[in-house]
């Protein structure tokens, strides 16, 4: 007798649960169609909590949550990221209930976010490039000319003609000279991975003075195949003990600046 009573009771409970989920799910879809995403989110969340695999509740719950956060679209970039995190988990090939609206919204958010990120990255890149250009132009030791000659064994040697814009005396400076062949391709030293000749000069340059570059030179050993030399001052030491340094964070920008200049292109 007990078994005969229990089985119908369980069947009734299962039926009630099925009908309960069906009703909530159906009303949730109606709420979505009426753009009442707050209601649809609440109803679908109940269904999801009881049975996360019920029909398309998982997708439609994400859609409703994303729509709630998106509102009329006037949201911050951080809020848009939250919406993107939700919709990016929805399959672009979703074919279930309300699939046209769901997929369309998903794709629109992804496209919008991509466009904003591309714009932001472009703005950040231009800002960085401006900083690099300003750092080069603001260097207190101006490179007037790169002087190339040959040593006794016929190897190229290089020196720099410079002007000191500072109102104090320089007693040492370091430079990095980027080396390229006639086609503007980097010439790398065999024992090094870059195309940079690191040099230092201890000639004194008086305040607002000039260094003609004819009484010193640097050997280009390892870069014999180079014919284009693009120099940048990276550090200056003054007789009063003060220093000027090129920001280390600009190193990649300097490399790109040199690479483009070697090919006759603007940075």
Can you give keywords for this protein?
four-stranded antiparallel beta sheet, 2 domains, 8 strands, 6 helices, single chain, Immunoglobulin-like
Give the gist of this structure.
With 267 residues, the protein is α+β, with helices and mostly antiparallel strands.
Write the topology of this structure.
Elements lengths: L1 H32 L3 H14 L6 H14 L6 H11 L11 H39 L3 E10 L5 E9 L5 E11 L15 E6 L8 E2 L6 E2 L8 E11 L4 E3 L5 H12 L5
Antiparallel strand pairs: 1-2, 2-5, 2-6, 3-4, 3-7, 7-8
Helix pairs in contact: 1-2, 2-3, 3-4, 4-5
Number of strands: 8
Distance between the termini: 89 Å
Largest sheet, in brief, is: 4 strands, antiparallel
Class from helix and strand fractions: alpha+beta
Low-confidence stretches: none
Q: Compute the gyration radius: what is it?
A: 34 Å
